[in-house]
Amino acid sequence: MDFTFTPQQEALRAEFKEFFAEEEKRAPEGWTGGIEALFASDEGWVYHRSVAEKLAERGWLALPWPKEYGGKEHSYMEQLIFSEVKSYHRVPGADLWGPYIVAPSILEYGSEEIKREWLPRIARAEINWCQGWSEPNAGSDLASLTTRAVEDGDDYVINGQKTWTSGAHRADHIFLMARTDPNAPKHRGLTYFLSEMDRPGITVRPLLYMNRAHLYNEVYFDNLRIPKRNIVGPVNVGWYVTMAGINFERSMVGGVAEAKRDLEDLVEFCKQTRRDGQVLAKDPLVRQRLAEFAIEIEAGRQWAYNVSWLQSKNPMIAGEPSASKYFITELTVRLANAGVEIMGLYGILRTGSKWANLQGKFEALCQESLGITIAAGSTETMINLIAWMGLKLPRIR
């Protein structure tokens, strides 16, 4: 691949850097970035929404979409530049699901009516989504979900339960899969629905972290009625609609950029902190660990760029994006643990404590990072996809 950006891409990167550097200055006190900070506090949510409105004004929530639906028809690489710069500066504003999962699914499978109804609203940041996929007995094996959708006139009636639904307590819309044909093979018979969260029949209950932060939720459907016009793609083809969405720009460059910024903060901490009469940065064991992470993060960045370049040629590749997701999520767990260990007992103090180093960033990351090795496909699932679809190894029956 060619690692050189065009003059136009360099200009766009500079524009992104200027914008996000300024927006970072507006972050609430104690802001450390990440998905938990976005959903867990009212201040974080207000910050997110204020940035979202500015991104929408610039058309940056729909960079690769066709212009007729509010997009700018930029390339995968330009989307990668946006994600990298935004994540490095720890600025929210881009809904985690609408522009990156719902919109690609609609663009690939939605009717013209669906496209014109939903895409401009997503581009204008009018909608906040949550994802109704995982269930108590269907997470990594998503196709085993049991939430039922039964046809009734112009509607489908939904009954079932979703779990680990990030941000459902903040969202005003949900996209979900439900089983419309219980007699079909499990990857078939699923249908992709869109719904407002204030419809009768939806109940949201919190699932709290150990530190009491509110990110996850359980969502219950009790005779929820969704109009047929809110189905994306054909009935019983929801699995393939879903795959079109999750394959979009899955380079994980955002995770790499966040890890790079976290490592920079940890290095600065080590330069300024003395232990046993010596600056931590001069401890050979600490220096070794920091150097190893710097190398791994740069390797992850190069791999993310390669994935984006490959996707520009074939959006449906699966092995390479799975490898990137596996590598950076596992790296983030190790970086979080290393940060806490290097800080010693101060490292386990949570955000808000006056004694917490780096505002408790690494303590929070320890709790958050394990979840991202499961969310959007577990590490074990990624390894299988690498084997089956990347290396073309046979499945063991």
In terms of topology, how is this protein built?
Layout: H1 7-24, H2 34-40, H3 42-58, H4 76-88, H5 98-109, H6 112-123, E1 129-132, E2 148-152, E3 155-162, E4 173-179, E5 190-196, E6 202-208, E7 214-227, E8 231-232, H7 238-246, H8 253-272, E9 274-275, E10 278-279, H9 284-313, H10 319-343, H11 361-372, H12 379-390
Parallel strand pairs: 1-4
Antiparallel strand pairs: 2-3, 3-7, 4-5, 5-8, 6-7, 9-10
Helix pairs in contact: 1-4, 2-3, 4-8, 5-6, 5-7, 8-9, 8-10, 9-10, 10-11, 10-12
Overall, the morphology is globular
Helix content: 40-55%
Count of DSSP E strands? 10
The whole-angstrom Rg is 21 Å
- Could you say which structural class the secondary elements and strand pairing correspond to? alpha+beta
Distance between the termini: 37 Å
- Profile the largest sheet: 4 strands, mixed
Main sheet: strand order: 1-4-5-8
Order of helices and strands: HHHHHHEEEEEEEEHHEEHHHH
Uncertain regions spanning at least 5 consecutive residues = none
**Overall pLDDT metric:** 93
Tally of contiguous helical segments: 12
Residue fraction in strands: 5-15%
Structure described in brief:
The protein is an alpha+beta fold and 397 residues long. It contains 12 helices and 10 strands.
Description of the structure:
Helix content is about 45%, strand content about 15%. The chain has about 400 residues and is α+β, with helices and mostly antiparallel strands. The strands form 3 sheets. A 4-stranded mixed sheet has the order 1-4-5-8. The chain has a 4-stranded antiparallel sheet with strand order 2-3-7-6. A two-stranded antiparallel sheet has the order 9-10.
